Amino acid sequence: MYLIIKLVHLIVAMIFFALPFTFGRWFRTCAQGKRAQVLLTITKIKQFADYHLNLAGLVLVLTGFHMGMVQKWFSTGYWLWVATLLTFVALANLNFILRPALQNLKVLLVDSPEYYDLVPTGKRIVIFSALHHTLVTLTIILMVLRPF
User: Fold this and answer.
1) What is the mean pLDDT of the chain?
2) What secondary structure does DSSP assign to 63-113, as a single string?
3) Cα 17 from Cα 52, distance rounded (Å)
4) Straight-line distance from the first to the last Cα atom of the chain, in angstroms, rounded to the nearest whole number
């Protein structure tokens, strides 16, 4: 049973941390297209962020807690607590930086018939991406090296 939970944890971690890496490419590609293509792409990114990534983050935390309890990692070091905190920071990053940027862009695209400015939203996506990449790197270091 532990190996199945570990496999689920690894797959969900790949989804949670790797899928947002594609958002920048999606955004850059759609920014060069027509309004309908931009709206469709923003809607898909928002759908992935709202449903798939939040669910993956929750499953990631729950399976990590289960494995930590089974292996008694919580009592042997602080690295697991820090990794859990980093996962919650990644979820907050997803919900408080990326989601408002996508919502603002969608409103801007619908309300403004001839002009839309992608620069502020692009900057928020860059901030989201940089923070997410940093969190992934720190979490991998914690999971592999277990420094404390």
Assistant:
1) 80
2) HHHHHHHHHT-TTT-SHHHHHHHHHHHHHHHIIIIIHHHHHHHHHHHHH-S
3) 12
4) 27
Residues 78-96: b if buried by 16+ CB within 10 A, e if exposed:
ebbeebbebbebbbebbee
What angle separates helix 79-93 from helix 54-71, to the nearest 10 degrees?
170
User: Three-state DSSP class for 143?
Assistant: helix
CA 84 from centre of chain: 14
116 pLDDT higher than 60:
no
* φ, ψ (nearest 5 deg) of residue 44: -70, -45
As a whole number, mean pLDDT of residues 63-67 equals 87
Token pair 């990114």 is found at 45
CA distance 23 to 16: 12
pLDDT (0 to 100) of residue 29:
74
Local structure of 11: helix, strand or coil: helix
Nearest-CA neighbor of 62 among 13, 135, 128? 13
